[in-house]
């Protein structure tokens, strides 16, 4: 038997384990599809009931889980100030009129009437409804970031632990099959000891302009810094994969491009004002929203699609989405890098960049016996001992439509686990409880402090 085959057969690993292919389907030479999760999704004895506070984009992602899996969850209440969004949500979930509210405060004027509350409000409106829900005994699905300040995050953690509520933070990448497999391989020492990680989030230039220049998160003082609003997922996934305490963090970044001094000659306050460079501008609101019909959900368009063109033009004349990207009141950095020191000498680098033509996170993990390189679609594992490269492709077998829910399937796989945790009153069925997720938030707050002060920051939880 050749030495390479002997290593595989006997597991002689020199400090690492080799890949086992028992649960993989071979789809090409050195390329395997792995199945996650195994087995069928178990239904609870009765559907978990939930109230959605904030029926915007994220509220609809989680609400759509209930719509598609009514045996798992039933949405029985909603609070949403925008009339059209509220009515659409009520219609989709058949919510009674006495359980339909304009603001979150009205939900808690009534006695507890559901098992859980889904908090998917804007970032600065997480703290108050979460604290009230905890006081009233609701279990909670809490959109990230937990809250805009360190103290508010710690307050939520303290009250949740005091009252024993289940609080799941929507760190959805922890539930994506791609990252679950990456963590399993690292824990099994498939590449030996982890030495360092490089993680990259390409925001994609149009998405950056939509959300963090024109959109709801354009001003960090009114919402949260972009490292938390966008990239607390990434800090969290690095922490979760490494599974060691973080010690120190240093960050740099700035707003370099989307500012007034870079406005092209002939540009106007709005893309609809006869801008001389609109046709050549990659950030043209007319191109993105009117012609491309991209991200038009923010306009709450009518059901009559024939009117959408005129409706979009009107929105571009009256909302921030039609304004020139160089003339906004934005302050979020458009490039951001961090370096992190973890326990046992492990290091990590994270880079968030606006100026890419593509999206989708990329990760490189360097170990003593091999490395991993992946893009959330495929994970390539290289073994230093054998010289072989193996490509793994994630697949969620029994719930394949989860893959379309967002974040590599993580959105709805989180919902599946949340339902089980609430139904069985067992928080161990979740991988992103408030106590598990708090450290990566502290990493984000300290990164922003480092960026502003130029200091290396200690991370304390």
From TrEMBL:
Transmembrane residues, as ranges? Answer: none
Question: Domain Gfo/Idh/MocA-like oxidoreductase N-terminal spans what residues?
Answer: 53-170
Return the InterPro entries for the record. Answer: Gfo/Idh/MocA-like_OxRdtase_C (IPR004104), Gfo/Idh/MocA-like_OxRdtase_N (IPR000683), Gfo/Idh/MocA_Oxidoreductases (IPR051450), NAD(P)-bd_dom_sf (IPR036291)
The organism's place on the tree of life at top rank: Bacteria
Recall the GO molecular function terms of this protein's record. nucleotide binding
A Pfam family (short name) is GFO_IDH_MocA_C
User: What protein does this entry describe?
Assistant: Gfo/Idh/MocA family oxidoreductase
Q: List the source organism.
A: Litoribacter ruber
């Amino acid at each position: 038997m050749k030495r390479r085959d002997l290593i595989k057969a006997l597991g002689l690993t020199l400090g690492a384990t080799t890949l086992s292919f028992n649960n993989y389907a071979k789809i090409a030479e050195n390329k395997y599809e792995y199945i996650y999760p195994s087995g069928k999704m178990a239904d609870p004895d009765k559907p978990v009931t939930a109230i959605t506070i904030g029926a915007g984009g994220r509220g609809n992602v989680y609400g759509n889980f209930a719509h598609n899996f009514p045996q798992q969850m039933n949405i029985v209440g909603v609070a949403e100030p925008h009339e059209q969004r509220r009515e659409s949500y009520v219609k989709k979930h058949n919510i009674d009129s006495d359980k339909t509210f304009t603001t979150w405060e009205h939900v808690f004027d009534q006695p507890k009437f559901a098992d859980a509350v889904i908090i998917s409000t804007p970032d600065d409106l997480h703290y108050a409804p979460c604290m009230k829900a905890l006081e009233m005994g609701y279990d909670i699905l809490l959109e990230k970031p937990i809250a805009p300040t360190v103290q508010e995050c710690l307050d939520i953690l303290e009250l949740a632990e005091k009252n024993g509520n289940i609080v799941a933070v929507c760190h959805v990448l922890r539930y994506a099959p791609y990252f679950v497999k990456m963590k399993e391989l690292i824990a099994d020492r498939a590449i030996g000891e982890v030495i360092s990680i490089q993680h990259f989030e390409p925001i994609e230039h149009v998405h950056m302009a939509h959300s963090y220049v024109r959109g709801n998160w354009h001003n960090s003082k009114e919402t949260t810094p972009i490292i938390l609003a966008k990239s607390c997922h990434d800090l969290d996934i690095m922490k979760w994969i490494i599974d060691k305490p973080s010690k120190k963090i240093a960050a740099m970044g700035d707003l370099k491009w989307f500012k007034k001094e870079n406005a092209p000659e002939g540009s106007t306050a709005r893309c609809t004002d006869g801008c001389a460079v609109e046709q050549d501008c990659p950030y043209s609101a007319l191109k993105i929203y009117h012609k491309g019909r991209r991200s038009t959900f923010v306009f709450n368009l009518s059901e009559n699609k024939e009117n959408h063109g005129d409706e979009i033009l009107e929105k571009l004349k009256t909302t921030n989405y039609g304004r020139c990207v160089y003339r906004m009141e934005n302050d979020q950095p458009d490039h951001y890098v961090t370096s992190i020191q973890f326990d046992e000498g492990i290091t990590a680098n994270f880079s968030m960049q606006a100026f890419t033509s593509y999206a989708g996170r990329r990760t490189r993990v360097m170990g003593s016996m091999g490395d991993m390189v992946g893009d959330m679609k495929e994970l390539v594992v290289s073994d230093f001992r054998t010289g072989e490269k193996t490509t793994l492709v994630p697949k969620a077998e029994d719930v394949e439509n989860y893959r379309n829910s967002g974040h590599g399937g993580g959105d709805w796989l989180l919902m599946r686990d949340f339902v089980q945790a609430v139904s069985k009153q067992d928080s161990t069925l979740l991988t992103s409880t408030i106590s598990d997720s708090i450290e990566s938030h502290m990493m984000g707050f300290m990164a922003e402090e480092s960026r502003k002060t130029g200091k290396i920051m200690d991370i304390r939880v």
